[in-house]
Amino acid sequence: SKLTSFLAIDLGASSGRAILGTIRNNKLEMKEVNRFANPIIEVNGRLFWDLFHLYREIVKSLKEIQLQGIEIASIGIDTWGVDFVSFGTDGEPLRMPYSYRDTRTFSAPEKFFSKVLSKKETYMKTGIQIMNFNSLFQLFTQQEENNPIYPITDKFLFMPDALSYLLTNKMVTEYTIASTSQLLNPFTRSFDNELLQTLGLSEEKFAPIVFPGTEIGTLSESVQRETHMGAVPVVAVAGHDTASAVIATPAENEHFAYLSSGTWSLMGIESKEPVVTEETFSLNFTNEGGADGSIRLLKNICGMWLIEQCKKEWTLERNISYDDIVREATQSEPFRCFINPDASCFASPESMINEIRNYCRETGQHVPQTIGEIARCIYESLAFRYKQVLNNLKELADFPIETLHIIGGGSQNKMLNQFTANAIGTTVVAGPSEATAIGNILLQAKASGVVADKSEMRQMVRNSVDLARFEPQETDLWKEKYSEYLNVYKEL
Ligand code: LFR
Q1: Separation between Cα atoms, residue 434 and residue 456, nearest integer Å
Q2: How many angstroms from the chain centroid is the CA of residue 407?
Q3: Are 7 and 30 in contact (CB under 8 A)?
Q4: What is the pLDDT confidence band of residue 205, given thresholds at 50, 70 and 90?
Q5: Which residue of 43, 137, 169, 442 has the lowest C-beta tally within 10 Å?
Q6: Phi first, then psi: what are they for 344, rounded to 5°?
C-alpha cells in the first residue's frame, strides 16, 4: 500500500530540524528525528552559512530514519529566503554561501536605484518589498565589488535547491524560494529578463523553475550508498519556509491574517492576485509566491531576532532559557520604553543589548537595565508594531480580518500572544509552532496524492494540533500606550 510517511528538512536562520510526518486516519503525527544549530559564521568580517554542515546533518537525519527502519515516501527541504550558492561549470559549489545578514549589502539598494533602475520601477517590476539583502541586491553587490566568483558562476541555486541538488545531482529553481529574490515578475512567475540583464546575467544562470509538488530527483547513488536508503524521491515543497508555514495555517475560512513568528515575524494575508500598487509600494509590502499559487501579501517585521541576539549575550553570563526570559519580562513594570523593531540599527548589530539601550537613551526614554526590562521592551514594541502592520493589512484586504493566526516557534510565547491580542483588539489563535515543517510534510503528502488540496490540508492541521485562543484584554490601556509607541517610532 501507499507510503504515508514523509521527511521534512526545515532550516531556519538559527537552527535546523528533520521532522518525520506520518498521516494516519486524517491526522498528522510528527516526530523529531534530528535538530542542529545553523549559526552564521563570521570569517574576517564576512558572514557565511556552512553548506556542508547542513548537508551532513541532512544525511545524518536520513541515516537515523534508516536505522529506525522507517520507510518514507519522499523528502522535502525548506529554508529561509534570498540566500543562494554559486556553482561552477563542473557542478561544484564555488564557495560557502554568504548570509543575508552580511553588512556589505546595506547600501546596495540606494546605489542600485541611482545607477541602474529607480526604486519605484524596481518595485513595480517585482512587487517585492525593498530590503537590502534581497538576492537582487546581493548579486548587484557581487557585481559591483568584482567578486571573483561572480563571472565564473555557471548556476545560482537558492538554498533549498542547492541542498536538494547535493542530494540528487539535479538542479531546479523552486518557485516560492525564487519569489523572495526580487528577480521574478509576480504575474508571470518567471524571471524578469530586463532585471537579469542589469546584473549581466541571463536565465541560463538559473535552473528551470518548478512549482511545489514537483519531484526534483531521487537520492543520488553516493547518498544511497552512505545512508543505505533506496532511490527515495526528493520533492520540491514550498522551498521558502514562510510559504510552507502559511499553507499550514489552521484557518477555517478566508477572513484571517497570519503572523509567521520566528527569527522574523512575517505578517500578511493570502491574495489570489499580486497587489502591486502605489499603496503597496509606499507601504513596502511584498508579493511572494504561495505554495498553492496564491500570493503572500506580507511584510517582514524584525521578530525574535531581537530576543535571540540578546539571549546570546545573556548566556555569556548565565544559563538562561526563553521561559526564564518571559518570566522576568512578566515581572517587570509595563510600558516603560519602546523601540521600533525595524530600525536599521537592529539588523546586524555587534551588541543588541547596547543598541536597544542607545535607542531608548536617544529617544529620551527610560534606559532598560535588567533582562526583564529589555525583554519587556522588545515584546511590547513587537505587539505595537504588529498593530501598525495589521492596520495596513486591513486597508489592503478586500475582506474583514476577523482572526490573527500566529504560527511558528514564536507562537509558543503566551505572553506575546496576549500582548498582541491586547494591542490589535482582535482574537489571536496561536499554533502550530511547527507550521513550517507541517506545511513541508503536507505538500509532500499532496504530491503523492494523500491529501487533496489546501482546505483538506488545513483541516488536517486542525485535527492534529492543539490551538490556543487569546482574546483582547485591557484594550483602552493598550490604545493609550500605542500613541506613546508611535511617538517613539516616528522620532527615529
Ligand atoms: C523567514 C524568512 C523570511 C525572509 C527571511 C530572510 O525565515 O524566510 O521570509 O524574508 O527569512 O531570508
Answers
A1: 18
A2: 12
A3: no
A4: very high
A5: 43
A6: -65, -20
14-34 pLDDT, tens digit each: 899 999 999 999 999 999 999
* Own/partner pairs, 280-284, CB within 8 angstroms, 24+ separation: 280/127, 280/396, 281/120, 281/123, 281/124, 283/392, 283/396, 284/129, 284/130
Q: To test the ligand 1 pocket, which listed residue (40, 84, 244, 264) has its Cβ within 8 A of the most ligand atoms? A: 264
Per the CB < 8 A criterion, the answer to whether 393 and 269 are in contact is: yes
Which grid cell is 328?
A: 522576568
Amino acid at 353: I
- Each residue of 138-196: pLDDT tens digit? 999 999 999 999 999 999 999 999 999 999 999 999 999 999 999 999 999 999 999 99
241 catalytic residue (yes or no): yes
Nearest to 339 by CA among 323, 352, 326: 352
Q: Which residues pair with 231 in a beta bridge?
A: none
pTM over cut 0.95: yes
* Phi, psi angle pair for 316, to nearest 5°: -65, -25
**Grid coordinates standing for 458?**
488545513
144 by Cβ neighbours in 10 Å (0-12 / 13-18 / 19+) ranks as middle
Active-site entry in 161, 241, 466, 476:
241
CA distance 283 to 185: 19
Query: Regarding beta strands 173-174 and 209-210, do their DSSP bridges make them parallel or antiparallel, or are they unpaired?
Result: parallel
Nearest to 404 by CA among 429, 437, 425: 429
Asked whether 267 and 389 are in contact (CB, 8 A), the reply is yes
| ipTM of the complex in this document | 0.97
Mutate to test the pocket of ligand 1, among 246, 300, 305, 342 (most ligand atoms within 8 A of CB): 300
Burial readout 392-421 (b: 16 or more C-beta within 10 A, e: otherwise): bbeebbeeebebbbbbbbbbbbebbbbbbb
Instruction: HSE, CB side, 13 Å, CA atoms: give it for residue 435.
Output: 33
Q: Is the pLDDT of residue 1 over 80?
A: no
Residues 6, 444 contacting (CB under 8 angstroms) = yes
Q: How close is the Cα of 266 to the center of ligand 1, in Å?
A: 8
Specify the DSSP class assigned to residue 240: B
According to DSSP, the β-strands at 5-11 and 74-79 are parallel
